Structures are given as structure tokens and as C-alpha cells.
């Protein structure tokens, strides 16, 4: 669907039957709730049959109701306010068995991420990172911990890795201004998408750099500029972002890059182990310390 879903419904309002208009008006006014309703529940809510709901989906160009529901999910990811997310979370999860429900939702996201992420794009991203002169990593707001996690390990593997800080647009551009064709920019963003990350992608492409996107959908604004598109599910509409599947994807990327550079990394970590031990970076095992004192 090229047009915004709500706009599409409004444009076709005049051709709808009486029952279809009831459905259309409910979606226009309560899209945050409709997105999580089955066809039967939506029909019961507005007072029409389940078959009328299915025909409505077909009428506006979808191949069945599940496709319409998926389009609603795509739309609300970047549209809902935090207050609306809290309301949706309360309705979808409730107060009982929160631990069980949330963990199972995250398990499902990892499973879908495994199904949907392109193996070709993943391998292309790995090769781009391994061969890059300089690696830039950007992730803002809730995606910032993912960017920091990736930077922590890549900084041990490579000489030139930069974690882009985005306290202001001007400072961000000052940090990425030297991107060249042999460099790679890895950007991480999920709904609601960061304008700064999108701007950084555009600049990197204009400079001829390679761009790797870690995001949730081919419709993400990051996808348009990406040389490698890595999709990770984070579509539990909650007042917080679920980062379990994206972190798992980042972890896989770090491991894959590490395996490509295992000989160099072995040397690096031997040196790091010496430094960590010599300068007591980590707390030693208590039993070993006691034995040493004897």
C-alpha cells in the first residue's frame, strides 16, 4: 500500500456499504485498538459480521484481513504516543502473568527475526564491516545501548571505530564529516524512528560510504538508503521498546565479524588479558585469591 492507510480509507468512504462505513469510522478513530482485534472482534465491536470485515479488507485492496491487520501494525509503530502505548499495553498484556507474556512475546520476535532477516544482507554487512577503513556506529534514544554494545566489541577488534554521539545535529555531522567510500556507517533505529539517524544515513550515502541498517521493517526510513538491511522485530507496542531481538541480531553480527578476524582477535585478546590481569581490571575469583595468600 503506497498511500497512508487512514488516507486510503477516507478516500474510499463514499463507496463503502453501511456496514463497511462503520468499520472504516472505527479504524479511523481507534486504529490503536483495531490493530489488535481479530476480524470477529472488530465486527462484534462495530455491530457487523466477521465476513463484512473480511470484505472490507478486500475492498480497500488487501488480500484478506490479516494483511489489513499487518498494515495497521506497521502504521501504528511510528504513530502512537507513549500514552497510547501504555493503554495498548494494559489491554494486550494486562496485570496477570506479565513475566510469562512478555518473555514469550520476545521469544516470538527472535523467531520472526530469524525468519525475516536476509542471509545475503547479513553476509554483505559482515564483509563491509571487516573491510572498512573506519566504522561509524549510530543509535539514539532507546537504540543507544545497542550502539554502545556494538561499539564496545568492535572497538576491541578494530583500530578505527567511532560511536557517534547525537546530542545535537551539528555535533553529529561534525563526528561523521570525514566518512569516505571505504568507510561504513551502521545505524540502528526503531519506531519512533530517529531523524538524526536518517540524516546521518543520507549524508553517508552522499559521501559514498557503505550503510548498514538495523531496523524493523522494509518501510523504515533507514531502509531506503541501506546497502545492507538487517531486520529485527521490535513490534510489541508498549510504552517501552523491546530490544531483545535487535540485541540478538547485533550479537550475531559481532560474532560473525569476530570469526572473520579470529587470528587478529586472538592476538588482541591475549594482550588484553595480560593488561586486565596486570592492572587488576577485573575482580579475581575469591578462591584463587585465598589460595594465593596461603
TrEMBL record:
<dbReference type="InterPro" id="IPR009057">
    <property type="entry name" value="Homeodomain-like_sf"/>
</dbReference>
<keyword id="KW-0804">Transcription</keyword>
<dbReference type="InterPro" id="IPR001347">
    <property type="entry name" value="SIS_dom"/>
</dbReference>
<dbReference type="InterPro" id="IPR047640">
    <property type="entry name" value="RpiR-like"/>
</dbReference>
<dbReference type="InterPro" id="IPR000281">
    <property type="entry name" value="HTH_RpiR"/>
</dbReference>
<feature type="domain" description="HTH rpiR-type">
    <location>
        <begin position="3"/>
        <end position="79"/>
    </location>
</feature>
<dbReference type="InterPro" id="IPR036388">
    <property type="entry name" value="WH-like_DNA-bd_sf"/>
</dbReference>
<keyword id="KW-0238">DNA-binding</keyword>
<dbReference type="InterPro" id="IPR046348">
    <property type="entry name" value="SIS_dom_sf"/>
</dbReference>
<feature type="domain" description="SIS">
    <location>
        <begin position="125"/>
        <end position="264"/>
    </location>
</feature>
<keyword id="KW-0805">Transcription regulation</keyword>
<dbReference type="InterPro" id="IPR035472">
    <property type="entry name" value="RpiR-like_SIS"/>
</dbReference>
<protein>
    <submittedName>
        <fullName>MurR/RpiR family transcriptional regulator</fullName>
    </submittedName>
</protein>
<dbReference type="Pfam" id="PF01418">
    <property type="entry name" value="HTH_6"/>
</dbReference>
<dbReference type="Pfam" id="PF01380">
    <property type="entry name" value="SIS"/>
</dbReference>
